Amino acid sequence: MEFGKSYWKDYYKGSEREWILTNGIGGYASLSLIGSNNRRYHGLLVGCLKPPTSRFLLLSNLLEDIVWEDGSHISLASFQTGGAETGNYVNDGYRYLTRVTFDYLPEFTYNCRDIIVKKKIAMKHMENTTAVLYEIRNGSREAEFRLTPLVNCRDHHHSSRRSRFNFVPKYSDSEMTVSAEGEQLTLHMGVSCGKAVELDNTCFYNMFYGKEQERGLDCMEDHYIPGYFSIRLKPWECRTVSFEASCRNTGLPFAEAVREDFSGDAAVNSCPGDGNGAEDIIDRQNARLELLLKKPGYSNELLKRLVLAADNFIVYRKSTDAKTVIAGYPWFTDWGRDTMIAYAGLTLATGRFEDAREILYTFSKYVDYGLIPNMFPDDGEKPAYNSVDAALWYFEAVNSYLEYTGDYEFIKQEIYPCLKNICAGFTNGTIFDIKMTREGLVTAGSEKTQLTWMDAKVGDWVVTPRHGMAVEINALWYNGLRIMSRLAQEFKDADIYHECASKAKEAFVKVFWNESRQCLYDVVNEAGSDGSLRPNQILAVGLSYPVLEGSKARSVVETVWRELYTPYGLRTLSQDSPQYRGTYSGDIWSRDGAYHQGTVWTWLLGRFIKAYVRVNGNTEAARKKALDFILPFSDHIKDAGIGSISEIFDGNNPYEPRGCFAQAWSVAEILRAAVEDAGLK
Predict the structure, then answer these.
(1) What's the whole-number average pLDDT of the chain?
(2) pLDDT over 80 at 84, yes or no
(3) Would you say residue 275 has pLDDT above 70?
(4) Cβ neighbours of 131 (radius 10 Å)
(5) Most exposed of 89, 95, 280, 665 (fewest Cβ within 10 Å)?
């Protein structure tokens, strides 16, 4: 992907798009397309202290300046400051930015007077290290190239002010270390050539974050400046400068073991050579990502981009000593529900079968109450099991694993007993009022609990109450029973699941079919049948074993297509509803009030595509039409999170991307549907 100056005609246009690099343990580097910090989560080094959680902003950015002997200078940095004391100010280094390319890693080209500067950025895999490589072609005059680090030490969810700073810097010829008292963290920074220059008690004040202002949050922050690195440039000299920033004492002694033992594929996750410096880190990361693309061997450019995007979400979790899935960047960690929904797209469609096996195995060890964890803890406490659907999606993940690998022996020995445990939990009843009814369906929760994926809650306000019998939960329940019936027969076990599945299917149609609208009710409970037109019903047709068939299945697909479809996913509520909210913006009350009340979710589109192809006979014509649902993402991957797919979009045209700019199940379900349902290669 290539971007030119038309993408940054002004600061605000240039700061709309964002990029992210990750290190495989939850840490990341992320800035805007023009290199500015536009949200509190942006930074060149956000280190991860308890993988994949406890993420700390350590290096916010590098200010890059060219200074001549006559005192004139040019700043390549782009940022915005604001506040009552300083007023609003935009530093316009983006004017010198001529080109940005994203191959495996981002590269930025600046042209200022007769000097050309190229910059590449990478993170070191399995370590909290960011590397920046500069290639500088100087012009006709002697000049100085300055790199000024903006340092911080705070949780990436927060922001900080000068009054909080308590840093202790140390200097050597070409290195700086900055320790944060109280956090027991040390940031090491160094350059391959040049001199570290000390500055005393210096700060960068009032960095302004436009994205946080949009979200109704604190939108200004200060950063500490320990000094700068000075690199002298002779006339017409070509010089390569390597910069590294690393947090080396963050409780990660396992990094080498992780690289060897938890790589999923040693050839993918490690490359030969023990060299140091930014160039080596970049070369190793390029080689790792190139090998990732070779595994599935796709030729389509969108698929290749999504394979690379998928890699960002598969990370190591220290507390389980295994792989897990980050739900979305920049603020989510790992969640059971998100992991299972994203599972097939992230691991199977990308050819990462060892990772797929490890994730299934890990969750099997934490089955309790007939459920799988919705969230793993980090300090030894018990996992959270507050999800009715995570365990049911686990069946779909297992079935997908078998479809891709045929590895029945692994499932029989390690996973099948856990699946039986889950079925028993739902059948006999378990926590959160999750239980099977006399009719064979599943009911769950109460007015105060949110157990389905539509779980927005602000204070005591349950935005989308869905306790009782939810339509997608019972579609997943039937799907799970059918999968268990198949496995019981395969393993010569007593098939007690086929009859339960038949009973559930018969009851499903009676309970959920909405004759007046020719679709399905969303929830049925003591208050009656909720006729709100929502996309959850698409799972009745879009899972491995559909609970709805024939004309009713076709009618559901057509209704969802007509009433809820947008180019980037399905609306969570029909526009005809009085509760519909078409824009996701503002403070937390406004945003959560719209989260599942009209906001578009991409992951649902993957299951819609599966359902569409199915009701149209799985024909070549249906698969070709399915491509029309996927093609808009060829444009979107250049629009918000570069190379990735956003979490959500506004329900109203023009469907502005919102939420996380890189979301696991968005990427995964479009990738899975493109390969499995549309036949894209």
Answers:
(1) 93
(2) no
(3) no
(4) 27
(5) 89
Contact at 8 Å (CB) between 464 and 456? yes
Q: What pLDDT is attached to residue 250?
A: 41
Provide the phi-psi class of 204: left if phi over 0, else alpha when psi is between -120 and 50, else beta.
beta
**Identity (one letter) of the amino acid at 361?**
Y
Q: H-type helices in 491-602, by residue range?
A: 498-512, 550-564, 588-594
Helix (H) or strand (E) holding 317: strand 314-317
Q: What is the pLDDT of residue 292?
A: 97
- Report the pLDDT value the prediction gives residue 268, as an integer from 0 to 100: 36
Say how far apart CA 267 and CA 351 lie, in whole Å.
13
- Amino acid 177: pLDDT: 95
Compute the average pLDDT of residues 505-523.
Answer: 98
As a residue count, the chain comes to 681
Three-point CA angle 591, 594, 598, nearest 5°: 150
Strands (E), 33-77: 43-50, 53-68, 73-75
pLDDT at 269 exceeding the cut of 70: no
- Residue 377 pLDDT: 76
Helix (H, G, I), strand (E, B) or coil at 143: strand
Are the CB atoms for 571 and 599 separated by under 8 Å?
yes
628 sits in the region (left: phi over 0; alpha: psi -120 to 50; else beta) called: alpha
Looking at residues 34-48, what average pLDDT do you find?
97
For 10, which DSSP code? S
Percent of the chain with pLDDT over 90: 89
Long-range contacts of 5-12 (CB under 8 A, 24+ apart): 5/97, 5/98, 7/33, 7/100, 8/33, 8/34, 8/94, 8/97, 11/36, 11/78, 11/80, 11/90, 11/92, 11/94, 12/210
Confidence of residue 271 (pLDDT cuts 50, 70, 90): very low
pTM listed for this prediction: 0.94
pLDDT greater than 90 at residue 19: yes
Buried b vs exposed e over 225-254: b needs ≥16 C-beta within 10 Å? bbbbbbbebeeeeebebbbbbbbeebebeb
Q: Is 78 left (phi over 0), alpha (psi -120 to 50) or beta?
A: beta
Q: Dihedral angle at the C-alpha atoms of 632, 287, 99, 243, nearest 10 degrees?
A: 130
Distance of CA 91 to the CA centre of its chain: 30
The angle subtended at Cα 348 by Cα 344 and Cα 353, nearest 5°, is 130
Phi, psi of 197 (to 5 degrees): -110, 125
Q: Of residues 272 and 618, which shows the higher confidence score? A: 618
DSSP class of residue 217 equals S
Closest by CA position to 210, among listed 460, 556, 627, 585: 585
- Dump pLDDT digits (tens) for 589-631: 999 999 999 999 999 999 999 999 999 999 999 999 999 999 9
CB proximity list for 118: less than 8 A, separation 6 or greater: 107, 108, 109, 110, 134, 135, 136
Can you give the C-alpha Rg of the chain in angstroms? 26
What pLDDT, on a 0 to 100 scale, did the predictor assign at position 264? 38
Q: Which of 557, 561, 572 is nearest to 611 (CA)?
A: 557
Across the beta sheet with 106-112, the strand order is: 2-3, 97-102, 106-112, 115-123, 129-137, 238-247, 185-191, 175-180, 167-171
* CA dihedral of 29, 34, 39, 43, whole degrees rounded to 10: 30
Can you state the percent helix, strand and coil of the chain, rounding each to 5? Answer: 35, 30, 35
CB 52 within 8 A of CB 315: yes
How far separated are the first and last CA of the chain, in Å rounded? Answer: 19
Is residue 600 within 8 A of residue 655, CB to CB? The reply is: yes
- For 126-150, the pLDDT digits (tens) are 999 999 999 999 999 999 999 999 9
